[in-house]
Amino acid sequence: MSTPSLLILPGDGIGPEVMAEVVRIIDWYGDKRGLKFDVTTDLVGGAAYDVHGVPLADETMAKAQEVDAVLLGAVGGPKYDVLDFSVKPERGLLRLRKEMDLFANLRPAQCFDALADFSSLKKDVVAGLDIMIVRELTSGIYFGEPRGIITEGNERVGINTQRYTESEIRRVAIAAFELAMKRNKKLTSMEKANVMESGILWRDVVNEVAADYPEVEVGHMYADNGAMQLVRAPKQFDVIVTDNLFGDILSDCAAMLTGSLGMLPSASLGAPMENGRPKAMYEPVHGSAPDIAGQGKANPIACILSFAMALRYSFNEGEEATRLEKAIEKVLADGVRTGDLLAGEGVTPVSTSGMGDAILAALDASL
Ligand code: IPM
Ligand code: MG
């Protein structure tokens, strides 16, 4: 097979600095494990707007469609708040998700032992937590029509539409059941079937798919109760499947259970390509964090763990993914901390590249 290709889109804010550490990890795999990647770098978000006047150039979109996987940093920043909605940095990200048809967004929330104290919840509630949120990513209220701001009489009306077809629900449900089969065979679906027709359909279709997975224990929860349960007793969950908007909110909530938003990776997967690999984009769950951008303070772990997910889900290198995850676990156990992970006094934070150095050293030690 030809050398696998990666498109790297560092984006805005802390995106470029955390992605720089990922590039060092990629190089390590090329040098030490013979895993070479053909890497191209391009612009997305505000960085693309500054050059092209749009948050994602057509040529970049075309490249994203061709490569084996896209790695994205983060988009957005206060500088771009004034832009028209249609060219805001986030539109670049949403265009990638939509046009690549990345319908299954995997957002694992894992609490590293060394960080259980950093959670805002009690240690015993989160220690050992390992859940996977599967968020539908290409439909629902994020994309539904009609949408817009119209004028009715003498006032403005903001409109968005929650809309799901059966097939959209079915394919993400199948992705979630497949994951559940590889994990603990437990799946919780979250919607608002008590108030939304789209929620009733969601529940129906999940139950239809469940018939093909008799080994999986399926539960349904209203999303508001799900949010409450996530902070009350998160370890009751294993795989959670939910729509685009609920998934956005519940995954931020789940992320914080683990101590820091700076720790959580994600994979957005679509249908298999001709070479059998899924269409895929990998990105940290955190945003562009403009308040600390450019200062070398950001935690690169979420972005590095996103590359680990790429190794596992795009390149069938599960063992190498585990090697990288173990290296990060070791570094954290050794007490290496970026600023976001410092709860107590007397610990000096390492810089973004300092964290990269420590992870590379742990990778070397793993050989
Ligand atoms: C996320 C983000 C995005 C979303 C934004 C940046 C468009 O919050 O990936 O969770 O709402 O999906
Ligand atoms: Mg979000």
UniProtKB/TrEMBL annotation:
Mg(2+) binds at residues 224, 248, 252. Pfam families: Iso_dh. Coiled coil: none annotated. It comes from the Bacteria. Belongs to the isocitrate and isopropylmalate dehydrogenases family. LeuB type 1 subfamily. HAMAP family: LeuB_type1. This is 3-isopropylmalate dehydrogenase. The gene is leuB.
